[in-house]
Amino acid sequence: MKARKLMALPIVALLTLSFGQQSFAATTPFTDLNHVAAKEKIIALQEKGYVHGVDANRYMPEAVMTAAQGIQLIVNALSLEADPTQTGKPTLNVDPGEWYADVLQIAIQNGIELPADFDPNKSWTREEFIHQLMVGMEKKNHLPMIKIAPVEFADSDELTVEYQGAIQRAIVLKIVQLDADRKLHPKEELTRADAAELIYHALEYLQAHPGPAADTPKS
């Protein structure tokens, strides 16, 4: 697994995405994307107001995300909202004063299952993020269940068993792209560039295939 030496960024430096945000033209291009494969996708998200850098000129694409930051990104990207009717949902043993406390609860209320020993400060892997992104998409948008033929790829034996279904669906729906060697790199730490590319494809898919629940208010 490729080593990542960059520390996870604080919450203020995260991607922030919302369908409700007003679009705006990027006034200053990021200067640290020249050698990033997802450069055009990051810029496209920035121009729509979905992605922000750590400052006016830097995106820091190789910085890693923690589990709490990844959950916040999914909640924001999918416009998940708190549901006061879901009072019976389990809660995590987290300090209610932490910035991520409400975000985690919103995720749980929207069907994203987090383990009791969820560590918000743990660096998230690609497979963990992909799995939770797919769960969030499917729950929020009521995506139809489809029969798929499992896709073979070079490092499929590295997948965590419980993530296999969601990741296979993500590949079939083209939310996830395998590399030139047909590898997914599931155990690599999630970077801001990784997250932006996955979010780009997820939003692209949802815009082309809006689910029946997308415009249906909760009762």
Automatic annotation (TrEMBL):
Keyword terms of this UniProt record: Signal
Entry coiled-coil feature ranges: none
PROSITE patterns (alphabetical): SLH
Top-level taxonomic group: Bacteria
Signal peptide extent: 1-25
Entry keyword Signal: yes
Positions of the SLH domain: 25-88, 150-213
Name of this chain's protein: SLH domain-containing protein
